[in-house]
Amino acid sequence: MNRDELLRRYAAGQRDFSGVAFYGSQGGEINLSGVNLSDANLSGAILSHVNLNNANLRNANLRGARLNGYLNDVDLSGADLTDAQISPCHLNKANLKGANLTNADFGANGTGPCDADLSNTDCTNAKLTGDFMGANFKGAKLEGAIFREANLYWYRAKLSRANLSELDLSGKTFAELDLSYTNLSNSNLSVTNFKYVNLTNANLSGANLINADLTKANLSNANLIDANLSGSNLTKVNLTNADLSGTNLNNTNQNGVIWTGAKIDNVSGLTDKSYLVWRIVNQQATGQNLIDADLKGTKLEGANLSGTNLSGTDLSDVILVDANLEQANLSNANLSDSDLSRVNLTQAILNGANLSRANLNQANLSNANFIQANLNQANLINANLSNADLSDANLSQSLLNEANLSGANLSNANLTKAVYLGANLTDAINFPSQEAIATNQLKTPLTEVLDRILDYFLENQPDIASSLQPGLTREQIDEKLTGFSCRIPEEVYQLYQWRNGMQELREGWLGWAAFVDTQNFLPLEKAIAKSRGFATDYGDEGDAHWLFVFGEASDNCGAYVVVLGKEEIAPVRNFDPEYKDYSIQYPSLTHMMLKKAINCSRNLSDAYLKGVNMSGFQLSKVNLNKTNLSGADLSRTDLSRAALSGANLSSANLYRAGLFQANLEGANLTGANFSEADLYDANLSHAIFSNTIMPDGSIRNDS
Fold first, then answer.
1. Distance CA 415, CA 432 (A)
2. CATH number corresponding to 602-703
3. Domain 445-590 belongs to what topology?
4. What is the pLDDT of residues 486-498, one digit of tens each?
5. Which of 108-111's residues contact partners 24+ apart within 8 Å by CB, and which partners?
6. Are 205 and 227 in contact (CB under 8 A)?
7. Of 252, 305, 439, 502, which is least surrounded by CB within 10 A?
8. pTM as predicted
9. For residue 70, what are the CA distances in angstroms to 27, 29, 91, 291?
10. Using CA atoms, how far apart are residues 609 and 607, in angstroms rounded to an integer?
């Protein structure tokens, strides 16, 4: 049946068109725009790639129908769409008022703005996972309806500007969805999952949010007037400029809430700690006495605490980015794991303070007193420590790259495994010799290439470099991995001893410039949590031996898992449950990081790469001068025009390697295997030959 026949039969009074099929194509949609098919029986119909813009399908029977194409301004009011598949469809300003959408599936539409009218619809058990921005759901029945598919990233509703007021949405999952500017006023949102949800400028006035989970939700500029949040989880919620007048916060978890600009008139249940934080960020606390205060886990970004007495205060895991603490007294304070990036601590007193694992990137610490302070594993990249007193301080495993230490006093400071590439040490007092520190450095091929990658980030992507957290001890790694019954490979230890992941994970398109490929490097504790979460979500698809070390970048669904269980190496698998792809991506962590290092820079001179497997690598024109490649597997590797002068290739496997015009001047080739290799026009002058297998199979020994 074609379009004209359908309309002719309808005009003649026929209404039963059940099972009719129309198949258009993308860009060649069948034009049914503006047609009148009201009250028609189109049950089981297939309307694929059809243009139904402005069509009248009022009260039509579309049970079990499949629709995709254009339904802009379509009238489906009162229509029966039970079990219908409506995806992908453009539904801009579609009228679905009073329609039956029981078990309807809107799939992953991704077709842009909607502004559809779904008021008084029956959406029982419907999959409302498409674009519903600006849609009106007032009076809709939403029992059993879902707004996101747990394991499919693209199947998530877009509900910005939607009207969801006065509805029963209790127990629903909106985790990670965009509900900005959405009207949820007077709705029942008890026990609802709003984790990581964007609720900026949302209207939640009068809403019932009892026992709701709002962990890390963004409620900036939201209207929460007279809302009931008793028993809810507000951990790390952003309430910047939100209006909480008359809100009930009794028995809520208020750890890490951002209170900047929040209006708290007549709020009940505000904890003393939260009120103190609110005062600090909104009314300032300069010069006040806050001795031994508990501010653990709070958000004090941009706060002015200059001259404040914070001695003995617990400021662990606090966000103090861009805060002013000039001349503040922080002696014996606990600032461990806190974010103090770009903070002003000039002339501050920090003697005996605990700043272990603190982020002090780009902080101004000039003339500060750090006597006997603990800065173990602290991030001090680009920090200004000029004339600071660091005598007897613990700076072990700290990052001091590009830091200004001119005139700093480092008498008896512990700099074991500290990294200070590019640091300004002019007139620094008692800074230990480079040799004394280097003897304590962990050096393996993996950490060697990781350091090369870090050098690249410092020069080209300093935001990633500054985001890398100080490494862990083996004891800390073992403690965090308690419960994993399988063996922990040495490579995993080396990776997390080097750095404990990234503090700030790059999302969206920024993921294309993440740590490796399109993936972030997850802190160990987050990797463990992800591993256990995936094991729960995916059941048999997961594996108890998988550790989710890399992920959460460009597409937010794929990841790299490291396979535990082997003694030395840790193979890296792809993890993409949407496409069932769990293939081996790299045979080892070292192999993966070597690929990354080579992509970052063609210079691996003086590197320690003993025993590495680079079989099949493309190393043409790479600088490997004086590199230690003894025992390395370089079989079938392209080394044409590579610089290998002075390199150590003893016992290396170069079977069928391509060394056309490579420079091997002065290289150590003792015991190397060049069987069937291409050495045409290679420079072998002054190279050391002893039991060296040549391309023709002969053994070469030079006296």
1. 8
2. 2.160.20.80
3. SMI1/KNR4-like (3.40.1580)
4. 778 889 999 998 8
5. 108/152, 108/154, 108/155, 110/154
6. yes
7. 439
8. 0.61
9. 11, 9, 7, 65
10. 6
